[in-house]
Amino acid sequence: MVNIYIDGIKYQAEEGKNLLDYCLSVGLDIPYFCFHPAMGSVGACRLCAVKMYKDENDTRGKIIMSCVQPVQDGMIISIEDPEVKHFRAQVIESLMNNHPHDCPICDEGGECHLQDMTVMTGHVYRRNRFKKRTYRNQYLGPFINHEMNRCIQCYRCTRFYREYAGGYDLDVFGIHSRVFFGRHQDGMLENEFSGNLVEVCPTGVFTDKTLKKHYTRKWDLSTAPSICEHCSLGCNTIPGERYGKLRRIRNRYNYDVNGYFLCDRGRFGYEYVNRETRIKKIKARFGAELQDTTEDEILDKITNAFEKGKTLGIGSARASVEANYALNKLVGAENFYAGISGKDHQILRNYLDILRNYPVNVPSMKETEEADYVLVLGEDITHSAPRLALSLRQTLMKKAMDEAARVSIPRWLDHAVREFYQDGKAPMTTITPYNTKLDDVASKSLRLNPHDTVKFGFLLANRINNDAPAVKDYPGEWDEWLDQLAKALINAKKPLIVSGWGNGLEEMLKAAANITQALNGEERKAGLFYALPEANSMGLGLLEGNDLSGIMETGDAPENLIILENDLYRHFDKVQADKFFNQFKNILLIDHTETNTTDHASFVLPSGVTAESSGTFINTEGRAQRFYKAYIPEAPVMDSWRWLGRIENHLKKTGGQWNSLDECLAELVKGYTVFKPLTELAPPSGFRINGEKVARAPHRYTGRTSMHAHKNVHEQKPPQDEDAPMSFTMEGYNGTPPSSLVSHYWKPGWNSVQALNKYQQEVGGPMHDGDPGKRVIEPTDNPKQQYFKVPVFETKTEAGELYLTPVPHIFGSGEMSSLSAAIREATPEPYVLIHPNVAGQNDLNEDDVAIVRANGKEWKLKVKTDDKMADDVAGITTGFRQSYIVELPLKGNIEKQEKK
Amino acid sequence: MISMLRSLWMVFMHAFKKRETVLYPEKPYELPARYRGRIILSRDPDSQERCVACYLCSVACPVDCISLQATEDEHGRRYPEFFRINFSRCIFCGLCEEACPTYAIQLIPDFEMSEYDRQNMVYEKEDLMIAGEGKYHGYNFYKVAGLKIAGKDKGEAENEESPVDLNSLMP
Ligand code: SF4
Ligand code: SF4
Ligand code: SF4
Ligand code: SF4
Ligand code: FES
Fold first, then answer.
1. How many CB atoms within 10 Å of residue B30?
2. Of the residues B61, B67, B102, B129, which should be mutated to test ligand 4's pocket, given the most ligand atoms within 8 Å of the CB?
């Protein structure tokens, strides 16, 4: 810590830190554009000028750029000096010379960093009499709108897209005053994180195209802290609602989890919420038809039907912990089934066993960025747990920073660090059956079929540590790879093994676990990050439901069935699922969206989607995170756990009548001590600040005396929320609430998302009172290494036979996101991915239709080829609406469809 | 006694003074042009809707009685899908007019809006739109803005260069 003097006031600062970052952290407002906490400084915009003085006798001082200036001992600077203020106003004025007269029709307006900075510098009048420069826009796909006239050349977009996210197809073109930020030609942005441009770009050049369809200003959105429901990573989000419709998803900063960024599935996958496939009415079956009915009527009907006979409950990995618990309680633990396939069930069980009983270190997503060697085992992370791929990419930066430190380039000079570490690769090895996006940063990529990958994993564990079980019989050329990799991992201080659900192999997790165990030692704890499939897979696992696959076939099923937010056709084969459903007399479904399962229901109750419900998800690392309703959905839609509570109360005449989430949680933790932290995730609903609830709507929220006036001119009482200490209007506390209740970023003078700086302990650091979310499972101290036994390996394929391996896809594999319009536009047709050699042998060309046969079934799929993939594998898109293909991985054949 | 008679006399004389009471509604009342009465939505010189659905009037409104929803035509021209003012809440402060960047929303000197049923005080876009430009003539926002709309390509707005040629290597 050193002393520095800013406008005559003494501050204590960390030496070497960048000055802008420091000033913003202590709450001093210096205007800036190109600096971004996650991407450091480049000094491109020249707006962050301050004055620096040689010593106390220096009265003239010199103008410097604070974002590229390290903090030095005894430094004297001024932000308020008139000359430097004038300088900053001039910078803005020159940027505004070409800025279009667009604010009223610009989607950034009202949350525009350029607007904020213009006001902050005091520039008001365009003196320039010359003409404005204009550009033509490009079509950039279904997610992002382009309006290039508004650009101020800060280079944030390309720095994020190319350097941070590893994209290739967005760049800067042109020279002189005509630089252009876009693609070489019209087309969809290829990177999976392109949506972040919306928040990274400080102006209205890149805006959210899905929001444009039903545009609403930031100040008109009712928002709440929420959690992304589209994969198991649990990125924090801010859904925004207006007039009863979900309008957009924005990133909610969580230092440990997603930081500043979301993936495009999480950001644009919300549109299904407003679709007509939503279930919004209570329905009961009369003959072949489902007909609307009332709550009282259906509760009586359900009571009549479910009183007699045994009832099974099927939970869901996409429903909240509370909802699953409510069902568990209603039907009894012995009748509660997890509702996932047998294979997924086994994986989940093993994973929990590892977390509970093995000395394993599960890093947060933030911590994965710090790893100094990463092994990606058999998983296409970009598509199965997208945001994690962005974090893994940052391991390159970690290495580059270490390198750059040798020549004293400060770590926050991000661009310079990257330039210095030319063509450098991340300390990462990927082992996958086909080419994945992470391969371009990985220093080594091995192509193995998934079964060989498992074998390789077990071998590697043994190579690292002799205690690990040995494997005999493997190809000789592996020895060199094994030695190299073992050495790299052993030399690393923070090695990390990454895998996930996407490859569909139970043994993959075991192999990954064995490698971590082998690496663990006195001085080192290896990390294991395994991505489960769904937002609450972990929560479901901790409730310990029974394995549904065990009773799918047996036929001794009871009479009644309750299904919670689950489409069994995504977990079981169609024939099997059909048969299963036909065993039951009464089937009650609680869900928010129509699926194939809806057709079997005799009673349907409408539940809220995540943005309309309150509850908890537990992400794949075991972090419990609370989400709250952004808005109250139109009745009778309500939280699944409320429905289940009401049914319980009606059926058993006791219990289940929870008035609030707190009451439900209190009961939950009594039954399951592991969920104890769930009650500490956020303040209870009785919490008040200065006697007020926290406001969901910003203080500028408009139209409240008019928005419902066409229906009834007399204003209604605003809806109440029993579950959160938050109000649904702008009435309430609008300062900085506890971080678990932050749902929009706004501070005086800071209308854009950059206001976030003022909610953090320091810029880019944790939230002011720590980040929301709590781990429910902490790694055990039990240091005893344990190893999984070597499995019986798959026999080699016969001639012409291929390993059919699942290929998850960020756009298409997500159950709900794949219903959303923009995501659907970005989703490829289901395909089979093969090596050109395989294609050649079977007389297939790219885009032909191939017939894939396995297990006595066949699928027709479009052919895609990849010349870098293993040639004994055929990758098949998994989880797509048109073709679920639940049983992968399999062994099978491929052949050309004969033209008729 | 004297003063009482004097008062009586003065009251009596008032009967012959010029009448202050206006015979409203028989005789219409003329208000100054800048009087803040009923709100209208005007059209630009090309007879197109002026409102670009920017939400600035609604955010300026101190009683929150304006609500609207933005939408776009197929060429990107933004306009309100619906536009509603609840006049039973409006205090005729004129802040919406002041906030409006397009001169679309204007207060006019008409106050004859009484209704028996409060529900009838809710005006929709159809009730607010007028045929002309209202008080402010000549201004056409889309001629000044950089956005491309039907009939106005990039570079064709006032004071604009033609679009940058990205293939040019000239300095
Ligand atoms: S980018 Fe910002 S300043 Fe520019 S038109 Fe949009 S809102 Fe206005
Ligand atoms: S497009 Fe946006 S982020 Fe990129 S240089 Fe222009 S203003 Fe900056
Ligand atoms: S990575 Fe997963 S949790 Fe995060 S935004 Fe994407 S889909 Fe959502
Ligand atoms: S301020 Fe003017 S242009 Fe904007 S929404 Fe209101 S009436 Fe329309
Ligand atoms: S923020 Fe310092 S030059 Fe842009």
1. 9
2. B102
